[in-house]
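@channel sequence for tomorrow's demo:
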Amino acid sequence: MSDLQVWSVLRYLLGLLGCFLLWTLAIYWLHRWSHIHHRLNPLWWIHRAHHAEPYLRQDSRPGWPHWGQYLFWLGGVRLSLDVILVMTLPLLLITWIWPQFGIPLLVFHYFYEVFLSESVLDHNPRVTGRWTHWFAWGDFHLHHHVHLQRNFGLLVCCWDWLFGTSEHPKPGASLERINARLKRLAAAQALVRNSTGSGRGRPIDAGGQHESPAQPL
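structure tokens (generated this afternoon):
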């Protein structure tokens, strides 16, 4: 391989990496925007469905996707829209501008969401350790489900480092303790729904407190 060919390959890989980082930066801010609790913020209403899912079950094991996931139907209208608006649309924009980089990233995005995102990497409580200091997998992302103001990054952790929202679980935080906190959260949310007569009350954090509606958590 000539020096010119080597440089062409390196230039392509650098462009691909740059587009990947731009994509994950857009994901970070759109996800963070999804936690601004305001009646005029549709991303908040859509994203709440994702946090209602029971991701921390000890009996959950990675398996083959449901047939609907192959069509990017991720369990419901809001669950599917959440991924499409926060992850897919920014990548489609990148693909429109730089198709040579966007198309392989779209292929990666599809296979990641269908085969890896749910119980294999993102929401697998058994994924711990050094990998979760670089990639938003396992206990890094699940920590966001307990502390909604932390760990907004998806796929990578670098934007949480940069913007001061990174927080890893304490070494003693076991799966059982996290499950117990989420059960308290579910009970508190049910209490609010019963008291208000609807499911449209403000979200509650893992300690049973209302989240602030004024800040981009």
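heads up for whoever presents: Residues 132 and 140 are 6 Å apart (CA to CA).
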